[in-house]
């Protein structure tokens, strides 16, 4: 017997998925170097992370951008920075995913113009027809979970519809929208809710395109065929794999029955995935590698429901910004599965399984019922405006947090099996993560100043005037946006014009109607009593202000703190996301609060927290304690305490009721009352 026979028959392998790493930080030059390094390591596509000012339509010199420039992604305030970002990367040969939503049209326009500049011998249309990639461009999930929305829902939907109509004709290989249920899961969505709300979003978008009259009936199938999805995969990998099979089945049914799509290829459920980042733990972070692998298996094991593109987080993302080596490790996880294992040699290994079929049926039926509920309200936009979907997610998340605290849902190394040996991976915590370039903000400010000095201002003014005029009519906004990009307008100027025409929007927080802890156990009962008696000693009910300073829209933690604080008996003031330090101080003064809690996950804590502390002192409220929660490295936490912060909480502090007890003690200490030691 030959060795090959002994080893078993080898089958031809299917083509692997596109392998990406979600990356971008500090400056365009630094991000460009990272992209080219990752491509050289075998990455087969780019996934661009933009910083929060770029995502929310502000230039680096906006007061709202303070502390946020280059923190969670790369700043791209104008065409010159887009050129630097893709220097020596031929865009007509690349598949680029851009995680961008409210300002997606603007970033796509700049991407196309850079590609035109790289190919001066071709016409703009010829270049556009060669581009391939994806703009996330899902604004509905921004209102529900991620928070980087800018304009009201109906105007945002118009921008999406205009982009889809443009790309189907001019950039036929582009996915103009990536319906994104990823953040819904992080905000508490069950698999049923994740499927249902993603499908409701897709229905709203397709109905918008159909109703706009910009796409013919015969081209509408192409529109459906270019819609892609971006999903989350959690650690319950059997359920997650069944979720993906349910997605495939339901999308095929909706596109066939609701929209009459005949071509099976156009009905195919095409999706990329980033496995769950917020499920990664700060405690025993080495366990995150096996979590990431299990989550990757959920979206690759089933051939019929296999992801088209996969990007994996790094093991240390709960600690801070991953280093290039950490990202390489995540890429190698994918490559081992694709190239060393035999996974890609077989047809779907789950076909015919009664267990899998039963679970898929359960998910499909549950999702259909929830879709029907939302459609009966008037669809996804109406369910955003009413707060229904947000409230459901906050309630679902509250139930999960309660289960973790009660030990009913086990998180290894966090609420069980938490004894540990010292880890060599985190022996030097400051070296275990990368720090964003502290000079990035200065560099971005200088870049915008220099850019504005060299451009033709009259040309910019004319382009922006055209954009405003087109926005007031039903004209497709892509042409005016391309003209503004070519003229040299900035990200903040483009968004500023549309803010003037469309107005801005503040989404419902979902906190007021959310169901928190149904039954109080002994621990919560004790905290309630401490809240009540402390309030009596201070002459009224304890008031806690929960604030989200800066542009960070990850509101899940703040919402859960607000809900549990309400359940513990606090009067809670929570005004939602994207507040300046000045607005938070003004609210603290107006409400005469006993404590200010700040939630920041974007890495801007060292700039924004001191601004709040200084503001409170200037307002004569320096004695009001400030607590801070977020992804905060240990050295930064110590520095914040030295600056006057009363307590710092990070992801390892998962016990919300315990945190409430800590807040009561902080308030008592600040007011000279006896405290429990």
TrEMBL record:
Stretch forming the signal peptide: none
Keyword Iron-sulfur among UniProt keywords: no
Short name of one Pfam family: B12-binding
InterPro entries: Acid_CoA_mut_C, Cbl-dep_enz_cat, Cobalamin-bd, Cobalamin-bd_sf, MeMalonylCoA_mutase_a/b_cat, MMCoA_mutase_a_cat
PROSITE patterns tied to this protein: B12_BINDING
Cofactor(s) needed by this chain: adenosylcob(III)alamin
Keywords from the UniProt entry: Cobalamin, Cobalt, Isomerase, Metal-binding
Coiled coil: none
A molecular-function term among this protein's GO annotations: methylmalonyl-CoA mutase activity
Segments forming domain B12-binding: 541-670
CDD domains associated with the record: MM_CoA_mut_B12_BD
Stored NCBIfam families: acid_CoA_mut_C, acid_CoA_mut_N
Subunit structure: Heterodimer of an alpha and a beta chain.
Family according to the record: Belongs to the methylmalonyl-CoA mutase family.
Protein name per Swiss-Prot or TrEMBL: Protein meaA
Species: Nocardioides albidus
């Amino acid at each position: 017997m030959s060795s090959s026979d002994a080893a078993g028959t080898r089958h031809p392998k299917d083509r692997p998925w596109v392998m990406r790493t979600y990356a971008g930080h500090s400056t365009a030059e630094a991000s460009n170097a990272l992209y080219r390094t990752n491509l050289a390591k075998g990455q087969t596509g780019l996934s661009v992370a933009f910083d929060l000012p770029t995502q929310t339509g502000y230039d680096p010199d906006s007061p709202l951008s303070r502390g946020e420039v280059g923190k969670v992604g790369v700043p791209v305030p104008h065409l010159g920075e887009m050129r630097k970002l893709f220097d020596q990367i031929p865009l007509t040969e690349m598949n680029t995913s851009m995680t961008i939503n409210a300002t997606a049209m603007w970033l796509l326009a700049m991407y196309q113009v850079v590609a035109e500049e790289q190919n001066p011998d071709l016409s703009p249309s010829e270049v556009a027809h060669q581009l391939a990639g994806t703009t996330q461009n899902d604004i509905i999930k921004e209102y529900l979970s991620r928070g980087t929305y800018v304009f009201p829902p109906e105007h945002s939907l118009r921008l999406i519809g205009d982009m889809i109509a443009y790309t189907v004709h001019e950039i036929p290989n582009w996915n103009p929208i990536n319906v994104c249920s990823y953040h819904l899961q992080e905000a508490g969505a069950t698999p049923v809710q994740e499927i249902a709300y993603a499908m409701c979003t897709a229905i709203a978008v397709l109905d918008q395109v159909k109703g706009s009259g910009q796409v013919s009936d015969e081209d509408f199938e192409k529109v459906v065929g270019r819609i892609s999805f971006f999903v989350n995969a959690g650690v319950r990998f059997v359920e997650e794999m069944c979720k993906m099979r349910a997605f495939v089945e339901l999308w095929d049914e909706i596109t066939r029955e609701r929209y009459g799509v005949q071509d099976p290829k156009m009905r195919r459920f095409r999706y990329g995935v980033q496995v769950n980042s917020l499920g990664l733990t700060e405690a025993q972070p080495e366990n995150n590698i096996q979590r990431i692998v299990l989550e990757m298996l959920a979206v690759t094991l089933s051939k019929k429901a296999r992801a088209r593109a996969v990007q994996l987080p790094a093991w240390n993302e709960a600690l801070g910004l991953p280093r290039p080596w950490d990202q390489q490790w995540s890429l190698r996880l994918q490559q081992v599965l694709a190239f060393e294992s035999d996974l890609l040699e077989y047809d779907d290994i789950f076909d015919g399984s009664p267990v899998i079929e039963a679970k898929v049926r359960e998910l499909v039926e549950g999702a259909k019922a929830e879709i029907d509920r939302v459609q009966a309200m008037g669809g996804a936009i109406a369910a955003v405006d009413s707060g229904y979907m947000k409230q459901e997610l906050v309630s679902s998340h509250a139930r999960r947090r309660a289960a973790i605290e009660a030990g009913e849902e086990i998180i290894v190394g966090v609420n069980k099996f938490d004894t540990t040996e010292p880890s060599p991976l985190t022996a030097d915590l400051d070296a275990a993560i990368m720090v964003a370039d502290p000079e990035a903000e200065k560099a971005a400010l200088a870049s915008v100043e220099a850019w504005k000095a060299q451009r033709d201002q009259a040309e910019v003014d004319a382009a922006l005037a055209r954009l405003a005029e087109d926005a007031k009519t039903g004209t497709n906004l892509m042409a005016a946006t391309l003209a503004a990009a070519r003229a040299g307008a900035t990200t903040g100027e483009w968004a500023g014009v549309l803010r003037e025409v469309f107005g801005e929007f503040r989404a419902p927080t979902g906190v007021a109607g959310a169901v928190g802890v149904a039954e109080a156990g002994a621990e919560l009962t004790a905290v309630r009593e401490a809240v009540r008696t402390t309030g009596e000693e201070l002459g009224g009910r304890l008031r806690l202000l929960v604030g989200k300073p800066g542009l960070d829209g990850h509101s899940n933690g703040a919402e859960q703190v607000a809900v549990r604080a309400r359940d513990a008996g606090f009067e809670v003031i929570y005004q939602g996301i994207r507040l300046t330090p000045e607005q938070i101080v003004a609210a603290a003064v107006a409400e005469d609060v006993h404590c200010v809690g700040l939630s920041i996950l974007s890495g801007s804590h060292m700039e924004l927290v001191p601004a709040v502390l200084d503001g409170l002192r200037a307002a004569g409220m320096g004695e009001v304690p400030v607590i801070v929660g977020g992804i905060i490295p240990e050295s930064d936490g110590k520095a914040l305490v030295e600056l006057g912060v009363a307590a710092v909480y990070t992801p390892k502090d998962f016990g919300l009721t315990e945190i409430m007890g800590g807040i009561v003690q902080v308030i008592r200490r600040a007011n000279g009352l006896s405290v429990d030691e």
